[in-house]
């Protein structure tokens, strides 16, 4: 094997790696752009022009978990950000969760607690209390759930 042919193989390997990363980033972008809809890996793979198996394999290689799990984690992080930034606004956990495509609210709450160590309503309550809304705490408790 010559130096030129090994350099060509290295370039091909880098290009394939960039292509894999691009597909995963594109899938993430699409899933987050349409975050008001439930995640559907078959739809993502069709849009990207790859098989579901390929998409699952790429996510497992790059993130160590399947696309549905990884994309849910990204959305959960977005929900947390929205809850934390809801200071001073009268919003509910239900409104925010459904805005990010979570329709099964019981499962959402359990998963959120597993990931962040507190319920979504606790996150929202803390965000409001840190903004000096403690006088409205009892009113908040009625609408947060």
Describe this entry's structure for a reader.
- Helix 7 (120-129) packs antiparallel against helix 8 (137-144).
- The protein has one domain (3-144): Orthogonal Bundle (Arc Repressor Mutant, subunit A).
- It is 73% helix and 0% strand.
- It has helices at 3-33, 41-48, 52-63, 67-84, 93-99, 105-116, 120-129, 137-144.
- Residues 5-15 and 134-145 have low confidence and may be disordered.
- The protein is mainly alpha-helical and 145 residues long.
- It has 8 helices and no strands.
Write the layout of secondary structure elements.
Elements: H1 3-33, H2 41-48, H3 52-63, H4 67-84, H5 93-99, H6 105-116, H7 120-129, H8 137-144
Helix pairs in contact: 1-3, 7-8
E-strand count: 0
- Gross CATH architecture: Orthogonal Bundle
Shape: elongated
Class derived from helix and strand content:
mainly alpha
Fold-level CATH name? Arc Repressor Mutant, subunit A
Q: What's the helical proportion of residues?
A: over 70%
**Number of helical stretches of at least 4 residues:** 8
Number of domains: 1
Give the H and E element order.
HHHHHHHH
Strand content: under 5%
Q: How would you summarize this macromolecular structure in one to three sentences?
A:
The protein is mostly helical and 145 residues long. It is 73% helix and 0% strand.
